[in-house]
């Protein structure tokens, strides 16, 4: 948004602003961008000088929870 919508009195037109915000398209995430988890893992790798951790699969994580 380059400028805020104004009323004739020069105040911010909240109704027009709300309409602009609701009508704006949501940004699409970049699929190649690292996720927060990836970024945190990279920080720990640099601190601990270790290889990247193995990714858990949904079946391996659910099996761990079923150990009753």
Which band does the percent of strand residues land in?
under 5%
Radius of gyration computed on alpha carbons: 23 Å
N to C succession of SSEs: HHH
Spatial separation of the terminal alpha carbons: 55 Å
- Which class best fits the helix and strand makeup? mainly alpha
Shape: elongated
Q: Count the helices. How many?
A: 3
The main β sheet shows up as: none
The helical percent reads 40-55%
Low-confidence stretches: none
Give a count of the beta strands, DSSP E runs of length 2 or more: 0
* Mean pLDDT across residues: 79
Provide the fold topology.
Blueprint lengths: L13 H10 L12 H13 L9 H8 L3
Plain-language structure description:
This protein is mainly α and 68 residues long. 46% of the residues lie in helices and 0% in strands. It has 3 helices and no strands. It is elongated. 0% of the residues are buried.
Summarize the structure.
The chain contains 3 helices and no strands. The protein is an all-alpha fold.
């Amino acid at each position: 948004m380059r400028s805020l919508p104004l009323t004739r009195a020069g105040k911010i037109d909240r109704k027009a602003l709300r309409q602009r915000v609701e009508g704006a398209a949501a940004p699409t995430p970049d699929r190649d961008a690292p996720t927060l988890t990836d970024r945190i893992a990279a920080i720990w790798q640099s601190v601990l000088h270790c290889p990247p951790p193995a990714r858990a699969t949904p079946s391996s994580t659910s099996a761990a929870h079923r150990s009753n």
